[in-house]
Write a structure and sequence with these properties.
The protein is mainly α. It has a domain at about 35-95. Helices cover about 65% and strands about 5% of the residues. Helix 2 crosses helix 4 (about 60-75), helix 3 packs across helix 4 (about 60-75) and helix 3 runs parallel beside helix 5. The radius of gyration is 29 Å and the shape is elongated.
């Protein structure tokens, strides 16, 4: 019984030593830099992502540069406030990126939301 216990202890020690040696040989992990999506996600609120994705779909080459510039400004601390959809939309228009957004007009009638198309069909 004692021999078996000693064998188990020895085996456990060897396993721990192997783990320690492996940890010493591996280089320590450097803190990874956050991705641009993670940085933007900290600052974008509301409908900002919707505006951003619409702009990226319509102006892919320009938006790569805008994204990089925004991320660098956010990392450097030049942008401190949160950015909502309206602010991002205005910013993009100011720099010459006229983003077109999908819009719908709805009416509330008797507690029910109806689109403009439905309203016109009913009145005909």
């Amino acid at each position: 019984m004692e021999d078996e216990l000693e064998k188990l202890k020895r085996k456990k020690r060897q396993e721990l030593q192997r783990r320690l040696m492996k940890q010493r040989q591996e280089p320590p992990e450097e803190p990874k830099e956050p991705s641009s999506k993670e940085v933007l996600d900290r600052y974008f609120v509301g409908r900002a992502w919707e505006v951003f994705h619409a702009a990226r779909a319509q102006f892919p080459s320009v938006m790569v540069q805008v994204e990089n510039a925004l991320v660098e400004a956010m990392k450097a601390g030049r942008i401190k406030r949160r950015i909502d959809g309206e602010s991002l939309y205005q910013f993009l228009r100011q720099i010459g990126v006229p983003v077109r957004l999908q819009t719908t007009i709805r009416f509330e009638e008797h507690g029910e939301l109806k689109t403009l198309e439905q309203k016109i069909r009913e009145n005909q």
